[in-house]
C-alpha cells in the first residue's frame, strides 16, 4: 500500500494539532517520525491509520481517498492497516488467541463462522487445541513461537508488547503503523521488534513509526520526519537528518538541545 498525506491539518475545537503536513510511505519503506512530546506524532499516526479524518487536506491509500468512500469500503481499506500502540493491550486468554483474534475480526462474518466450525472439527478429531500456522509464523517473527499456549497474564511487559506486534503481523497488513512500540522495552526486546520491522520491510510492506529514540530512528529508517508544534519541519534520509539537517530546529533537536520558549518556563 502507498500512503500519502497531502497538506493535512487536524484540529479539535479551537486547538490546531497538525498544520499542513505532507508525507508519503511507499511499499517497503520504513518512515520514522521524531519530535518532542506534544508535537503531533500520535495524531499523525491516527490519521494514517484512518482512525481520524483530517479537518483539511487529503489522506490517500493507493491514490484513493478513503473518506470519499462508503463506510464499508473505508473499513476494507482500514483492515489493510495494522496499528501497534505504546502500551500492550491483551485479552485474558492464551497468547495464540490474542494473536489470532486480530486476523479473525477482519474476515467477513460468513468466513468467521466457517472457520469457527472448522476449528471445532479439528479439535474434536485430534482431541487437542489447534493453532493456525499464520499465528505461529507471526509469533516466530517476535521470538515467541513456543509461548503460544501461555496465558497472556503470565507475560512480562516486553513479551506482551511482542505479542501485540505479532497480532498486527498475523493480519498481514499492507501498512504497519507503530506508536512508540519500544519505548518501555529493554534492549533485547527492542532488538527483537526492530528485527521484526526489518522482516516487514523485506515483505515489501510499509512501516510508519513514531519514536523518541534517536538511535533507533537512525538504525531502522529509510526516511526520518521531524515534527514540531504540529508542523512537519523536515523529511529526509537518516544520514542527512542526523548529520546535515537543513533546518536549524532539526539540528538543535537531534543534538539534544531543548526546544522551548523561555517565557513559558517558571520563574
TrEMBL record:
GO terms for molecular function: ATP binding; ATP hydrolysis activity; phosphate transmembrane transporter activity. InterPro entries: AAA+_ATPase (IPR003593), ABC_transporter-like_ATP-bd (IPR003439), ABC_transporter-like_CS (IPR017871), P-loop_NTPase (IPR027417), PstB-like (IPR005670). Pfam families: ABC_tran. PANTHER family: ABC TRANSPORTER I FAMILY MEMBER 17. Residues 3-254 form the ABC transporter domain. The keyword Nucleus does not apply. It comes from Natrinema salifodinae. Transmembrane segments: none annotated. GO terms for cellular component: membrane. This is Tungstate transport system ATP-binding protein.
Amino acid at each position: 500500500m502507498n500512503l500519502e498525506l497531502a497538506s493535512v491539518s487536524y484540529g479539535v475545537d479551537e486547538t490546531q494539532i497538525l498544520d499542513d503536513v505532507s508525507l508519503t510511505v511507499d511499499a517497503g519503506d520504513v518512515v520514522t517520525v521524531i519530535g518532542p512530546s506534544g508535537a503531533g506524532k500520535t495524531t499523525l499516526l491516527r490519521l494514517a491509520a484512518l482512525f481520524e479524518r483530517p479537518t483539511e487536506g487529503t489522506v490517500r491509500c493507493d491514490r484513493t481517498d478513503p473518506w470519499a468512500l462508503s463506510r464499508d469500503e473505508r473499513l476494507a481499506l482500514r483492515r489493510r492497516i495494522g496499528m501497534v500502540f505504546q502500551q500492550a493491550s491483551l485479552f485474558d486468554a492464551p497468547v495464540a488467541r490474542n494473536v489470532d483474534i486480530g486476523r479473525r475480526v477482519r474476515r467477513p462474518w460468513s468466513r468467521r463462522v466457517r472457520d469457527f466450525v472448522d476449528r471445532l472439527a479439528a479439535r474434536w478429531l485430534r482431541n487437542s487445541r489447534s493453532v493456525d500456522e499464520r499465528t505461529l509464523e507471526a509469533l516466530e517473527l517476535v521470538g515467541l513461537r513456543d509461548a503460544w499456549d501461555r496465558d497472556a497474564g503470565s507475560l512480562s511487559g516486553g513479551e506482551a508488547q511482542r505479542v501485540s506486534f505479532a497480532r498486527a503481523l498475523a493480519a498481514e497488513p499492507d501498512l504497519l503503523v507503530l506508536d512508540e512500540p519500544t519505548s518501555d522495552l529493554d534492549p533485547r526486546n527492542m532488538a527483537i521488534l526492530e528485527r521484526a520491522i526489518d522482516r516487514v520491510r523485506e515483505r515489501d510492506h510499509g512501516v510508519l513509526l513514531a519514536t523518541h529514540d534517536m538511535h533507533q530512528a537512525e538504525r531502522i529508517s529509510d526516511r526520518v520526519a521531524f515534527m514540531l508544534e504540529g508542523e512537519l519541519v523536515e523529511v529526509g534520509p537518516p544520514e542527512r537528518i542526523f548529520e546535515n539537517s537543513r533546518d536549524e530546529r532539526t539540528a538543535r533537536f537531534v543534538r539534544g538541545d531543548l526546544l522551548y520558549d523561555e517565557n513559558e518556563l517558571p520563574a
